Amino acid sequence: MKQVFTNRLIVFLLGLFLVSCVDTEYDNPETATNAALPDDTATMTIADLKSLHTTAGHGDNDTTAIPENTTIVGQVISSDEEGNVYKELYIQDTTGGILIRIDSSPLYTQFKLGQEVAVICDELVLGSYGSNIQLGVPSLYEGSPAAGRIPSPIMKRYFFTGAEEELVTYTATVNEIQEDLDYYVGRRVMIENITVANSDKGKTFADAENESTQNRYLNDGSTDNDIILRTSGYSDFAGDTLPEGTGTLYGLVSRFRDDAQIYINTPSADLVDFTLSSNNDEDDEDEDNDNDEEEPTPSETVRQIKEAFEGTKYDDIAIEGWNNIVEEGTQGWFYNEYQSNGYANMTVFEQSEKRKVWLISPILDVTNAEFKIVSFDTRREFVDGATLKVMVSSDFNGTDAPSNASWTELNVPFSSDGTDFYGTWTNSGNIDLSSYGNVVVAFLYEGEDGVNDGGYSIDNFKFNAEEIISVDPSSYYALADGLSGYNLKSTLHNIISENYVNLGYSALWDAYTTTDDKYGEGKIVWDMYTDIPNPSNPSVPDGDQPGEHEFTQITDKDSGSGGTEEGQYYNREHSMPQSWFNSDEPMKSDIFHVIPADKKVNNTRSNNPYGEVTSGGTETVNGSILGYNADGQKVFEPIDEYKGDIARIYFYMATRYEDEISSWDQNSSEADYVFNGTTGQVFESGYLQMLLEWHEADPVSQKEIDRNEAIFLLQGNRNPYVDHPEFIDSIWK
Q1: Cα distance between residue 276 and residue 246, in whole Å
Q2: What is the rounded distance in angstroms from the CA atom of residue 101 to the CA atom of residue 99?
Q3: How far apart are CA 715 and CA 591, in angstroms?
Q4: What three-state secondary structure class fits 234?
Q5: 135 pairs with which residues across the strands?
Q6: Among 330, 305, 331, 329, residue whose Cα is nearest residue 319
Q7: Quick one: angle between helices 702-715 and 643-656, nearest 10?
């Protein structure tokens, strides 16, 4: 152990000895009589400690070292006795609060509510998750530096407890917390006159049956924006019903990005004085019963939907907040059922009429949603011309005709079968609504019997549902723990092939607005073939400046003509050319390797493999070059900044399609140069060595991390070599 750490420990023990002996044995906390810590124990405030991370400009994928001889002192404000806070300790001082990650449970027997705690920080680091700053040991999260849990056996190196005192609580309104989140995060607060939002009344704190963490929404009238009450599905009170009426909430303020979240330790102590509102009192029994429960207005928004369309077979769909509107014909969307599974159905098959029918969701509160994602399943049935459009509108008010609103059609994959039989259910993938604001989602069916025969079905409509996109990285790759070599690769193949959603080739244009968004504004395409990371790049010809060859999302996409010069259009570039796998799906549409690229440069590269040019060549504006390598093979060499990206894409393809890639070497001479006809090594030895060198020279970048997350939302799988670059060495070295 460092000498400085030992000296610090001596100072602690000496100071505490002068006051009283500190009981650091926690077997019998009821009899603990810890004395107060010396006044000069803390060498830094919690606010100053947290500022080290923010001042350094570090975020969720980096850590900040802490100076030697740093000690903070705070009051314990969290308890894991009822399981809502797990392996985490929240402490606060007068300047702020912080979360400390500890690999031990339970903690409430060791750290009492209100107890003083001194934390020696010398060997710890600061990290963050969702912008929430945390304290822990140096670790990795998805391959990036992170603050990990402090192991239980060495906890006593870092913690000294003092006296138990009255809990300090900060009175605040919902608006104040949301407006000054940096100040309140990590603190214990009291919010008065708070009530559960209408959309969550009568619900339980969380999903106890599936042990799923849930967000519930509350408000005190200080703002239109509700605050999130977040509860673990493993907590003892997950299945309890939320309180009715208005009362006072005591809770811990956390955050996920820009959203404030409140955690409570236990409902009995932290949700108090709730009283039923007057319109629910038994004294009002003589009032009109129809008014006992207020009907939602057309403009009311909802925070979460999980709609399975279960109802009486063949009845018209009638769901609170939804609109089932018949514009033409006599039949609205109706409930149907097959093999005990209910779903929404619309058809003109043998109905002798023309139908145009809308099924429209409630207004989705995208603005305040944690997961701004909608997902659903569709199925085609005997379709020969009938159509289904999925659209969103921000100005449909629920009372006027849909034709009076403006609509934007979403690019949704439908099953290619179902023309003369019941087709297969197809998932839409995760559709990001963040760019649309608060909207309704509409399913518009049009068909005519004898002309546009057939129907469509809809099921499992979800909005802001945590299970759509949430993934615990440790559990995602859990089956790969301890494996190496080709066994690891095969296991990763199974992991990333499960839940895969084939978006379809045409959907990639819209996907690029989030997966390859250069500046985070949904405007400019990030094209690795034309991007100039260094504006002083000597390869830039006179007159060409960075940004000149940037493409606007959607507007500048390839329209089928033009593109004889760089900078005119972008298109969909298969990093592994389609001829290598006979243009088969899902490889053709797998967005991990289908990247946006300048049309001219894409055509220049053609079907040639990537490689390192040693002679001849045609150079692009950013320095990429087509020429010949040392073997005399024509190759395309990207700039150094993106060679690692390309290598990890190729390792992904070798893993995702290991069950069929062994035959690709037979499809073209270029493919034969790259592949060796095996399912294990996959690549020719010389080519593999080049990919490994590219991977090592150009480590995982933030661009790749962001792209990996965005693709996961849409396609349902991940590139394991972006999350865990070390897997590459375990498999191929």
Answers
A1: 7
A2: 7
A3: 8
A4: coil
A5: 100, 126
A6: 305
A7: 30
Query: How many residues are listed for the chain in this entry?
Result: 733
- Cβ partners under 8 Å of residue 248, min gap 6: 190, 191, 192, 193, 194, 271, 272, 273
CA-based radius of gyration for the chain: 29
How do residues 185-216 score in pLDDT, each as one tens digit?
999 999 999 999 887 888 999 988 878 788 89
Are the CB atoms for 235 and 82 separated by under 8 Å?
Answer: yes
Residue 606, C-beta contacts closer than 8 angstroms, at least 6 positions apart: 577
Please, are residues 526 and 590 in contact by the beta-carbon 8 Å criterion? no
Cβ-proximal residues to 729 (8 Å cutoff; 6+ apart), any chain: none
Q: Which residue has the tokens 């040019």?
A: 613
pTM flag (> 0.90): no
Q: Which residues pair with 528 in a beta bridge?
A: none
Instruction: For residue 336, give the nearest of 475, 456, 200, 511 by alpha carbon.
Output: 456
Q: How confident is the model at residue 592 (pLDDT cuts 50, 70, 90)?
A: very high
Nearest to 235 by CA among 202, 262, 208, 263: 208
- Residue 473 · residue 142 · CB < 8 Å: yes
pLDDT digits 0-9 by tens, 356-371:
999 999 999 998 877 7
Question: Residues 448-496: pLDDT tens digits?
Answer: 877 667 899 999 999 987 655 555 566 788 889 899 999 999 999 999 9
Report the SS3 class of residue 165.
coil
Cis peptide upstream of residue 106 (ω within 30 degrees of 0): yes
Cα(533)–Cα(511) distance, rounded to whole angstroms?
A: 23
Spatial distance between the Cα atoms of 97 and 709, rounded to a whole number of angstroms: 29
CA trace torsion 725, 151, 131, 466 (10° rounding): 80
pLDDT score, position 715: 87
Nearest alpha carbon to residue 228 among 153, 281, 278, 174? 174
Rounded CA separation 382/3 (Å):
78
Task: Quickly list DSSP for 210-223.
Answer: TTB-EEEEEE-SS-
Specify the DSSP class assigned to residue 524.
B
- Which one-letter amino acid corresponds to residue 574? H
Can you give the pLDDT at residue 467?
57
Q: Which of 122-136, 231-245, 301-315, 486-500 has the lowest mean pLDDT?
A: 301-315
Which helix H or strand E contains 230, and what residues bound it?
strand 227-231
Decide: residue 539, CB within 10 A, 0-12 exposed, 13-18 middle, 19+ buried: middle
200 DSSP assignment: G
- Confidence (pLDDT) at 28: 32
Residue 79 has pLDDT above 60, yes or no: yes
The segment with the largest mean pLDDT, out of 192-201, 426-435, 719-728, is 719-728
Give 634's strand partners: 628
